[in-house]
């Protein structure tokens, strides 16, 4: 739990822009990230997420605009690991060291008490492997070590770049629970991903970017409501007759199995009334809400740099 009286930590990004030659990696981004919530930072590959996180952490200088943690530019904070903990690249560690030695060196370099090392090792479930060389760690263990490093300074703000990347289902569940717990303790948890499926059971709020620009900054629930591709699922013993009637009303109809139709451009109410008026039996009539994934794909469709599933 954070000490009483602590100023509420918060991330603020204001008109943030980064250009690399002709490439605008980040283009006038504005958003805030609130404490006590998990905020997902989502966008397709190349959307500018890592560049934004690096600017937040003072590792990349913005071309213009500002990125602050708790009202300060990160590089102006007195002690690196105390105001914010970060996981940027879990592979970027010395493979010859043990996990414990890696964390001890970080604690020493940042003026943190040595006891924190055992504490965070325990927190991420790495105690048993702490005295093995990092070179022999699996990707999941490296992610855990990276998260342990981020937690070392007991920071009120956590900034994690793709922490679920490469984890097995058990690892994903573990990180998800950890993030929820850290947010429950009142911390600001900002976590990037290029997959909506990773965020939909993890995040409370979303910041969605595409080609360096802001697409949405809102709660997960309001983002889900943006999906436009609402359709109606219908099951009937007379699919062809009903399809013809619906098409005559201007709806788009596709077969979704031998006796099932997928209808867009007509609400369930209209489908039901039309069927009743013409004596067509309906065995199912369901409005399918657009999933978060659909909303994400629709809203970022114009901003994808590479084909889906591009290797990372
Ligand atoms: N140091 C750099 N020099 C030149 N271009 C860069 C540099 N860093 C990033 N870029 C470019 O900026 C854009 C955004 O990259 P960034 O890595 O921030 O995106 P991302 O959303 O984190 O994507 P990914 O999930 O693939 O890492 C890309 O077009 C990338 O090629």
The number of distinct β-strands equals: 14
CATH topology of the largest domain: Rossmann fold
The residue-averaged pLDDT reads 86
Number of helices: 10
Categorize the overall geometry: elongated
Low-confidence stretches: 1-7, 306-312
Strand content: 25-35%
Strand order of the largest sheet: 6-7-8-3-9-10
User: Major sheet: size, sense and barrel closure?
Assistant: 6 strands, mixed
CATH architecture group name of the largest domain? 3-Layer(aba) Sandwich
State the distance separating the first and last CA atoms.
Answer: 36 Å
CATH class term of the largest domain:
Alpha Beta
Percent of residues in helices? 25-40%
The helix-strand sequence is: EEEHEEEHHHEHEHEEHEHEEHEH
Task: Characterize the quaternary organization of these chains.
Answer: single chain
CATH superfamily of the largest domain: P-loop containing nucleotide triphosphate hydrolases
Description of the molecule:
- Helix 5 links the parallel strand 7 and strand 8.
- This protein has a six-stranded mixed sheet, sandwiched between helices. A four-stranded antiparallel sheet has the order 2-1-4-5, covered by helices on one side.
- It contains ten helices and 14 strands.
- Helix 2 (99-109) packs across helix 3 (115-123) and helix 3 packs across helix 4.
- It is α/β, with parallel strands linked by helices.
- The chain folds into two domains: 11-224, Rossmann fold (3-Layer(aba) Sandwich), CATH 3.40.50.300; 231-288, Alpha-Beta Plaits.
- Adenosine-5'-triphosphate (ATP) binds at residues 20, 23, 25, 43, 45-51, 194.
- Residues 11-236 form the ABC transporter domain.
- Keywords: ATP-binding, Nucleotide-binding, Transport.
- This is ABC-2 type transport system ATP-binding protein.
- It comes from Kitasatospora viridis.
- Belongs to the ABC transporter superfamily.
């Amino acid at each position: 739990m954070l000490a009483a009286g602590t100023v509420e930590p918060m991330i603020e990004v204001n008109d943030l822009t980064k250009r690399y030659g002709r490439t605008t990696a980040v283009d006038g981004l504005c958003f805030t990230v609130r404490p006590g919530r998990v905020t997902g930072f989502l966008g397709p590959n190349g959307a500018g997420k890592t560049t934004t996180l690096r600017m937040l952490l003072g590792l990349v200088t913005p071309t213009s605009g500002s990125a602050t943690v708790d009202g300060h530019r990160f590089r102006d904070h007195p002690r690196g690991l105390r105001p914010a903990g970060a996981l940027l690249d879990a592979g970027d560690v010395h493979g010859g060291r043990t996990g414990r030695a890696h964390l001890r060196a970080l604690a020493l370099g940042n003026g943190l008490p040595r006891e924190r090392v055992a504490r965070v090792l325990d927190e991420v479930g790495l105690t048993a492997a702490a005295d093995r060389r990092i070179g022999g760690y699996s990707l999941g263990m490296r992610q855990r070590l990276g998260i342990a490093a981020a937690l070392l300074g007991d920071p009120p703000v956590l900034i994690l770049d793709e922490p679920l990347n490469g984890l097995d289902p058990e690892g994903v569940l573990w990180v998800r629970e950890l993030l929820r717990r850290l947010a429950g303790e009142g911390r600001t948890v900002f976590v990037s991903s290029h997959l909506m499926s990773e965020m939909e059971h993890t995040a409370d709020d979303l910041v969605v970017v595409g080609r360096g620009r802001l697409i949405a900054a809102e709660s997960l629930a309001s983002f889900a409501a943006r999906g436009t591709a609402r359709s109606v699922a219908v099951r009937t013993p007379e699919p062809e007759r009903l399809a013809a009637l619906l098409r005559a009303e201007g709806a788009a109809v596709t077969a979704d199995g031998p006796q099932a139709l997928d209808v867009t451009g007509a609400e369930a109410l209209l489908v039901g009334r039309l069927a009743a008026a013409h004596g067509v039996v309906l065995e199912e009539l369901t409005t399918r809400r657009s999933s978060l994934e659909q909303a994400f794909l629709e809203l970022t469709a114009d901003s994808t740099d590479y084909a889906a599933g591009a290797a990372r």
